[in-house]
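Illustration 12: PIRT protein.
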Amino acid sequence: MEIPPKSPDGSEKSPQSKELITSPTGSTLCMSSRSESVWTSTPRSKWDIYHKPIIVVSVGAAIFLFGAVITSLSFFLTKNTNVFKMSGPAFLSLGLMLLVCGLVWIPIIRKKQKQRQKSQFLQSLKSFFFNR
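Figure caption equivalent — predicted structure in token form:
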């Protein structure tokens, strides 16, 4: 007969079972979900919504410009041109990749915001008609 291992604080139950038992809602899966709830979402500012892609675009543009400067230095300087010729295109490609990823991310967020607004509208309609 196996004896279940005790938790570090000496109690019989594991920390996971304590969390499940003491959960006020009983649905820890929904609480740990990264997606926002339709019912508890508060209006967010544009900066809260778009700050990540804006940061990615600005960092990508800065790295791209740095790569352009490094690449142009390889044409004007005569010493250590191999270092500039190797690192310049690498920074150019990395910056361009971040720039494009950020620019593609913005329309994706806009589409998700529209879907979320439609979903909230449909949820309110459902609750109006079915909770009478």
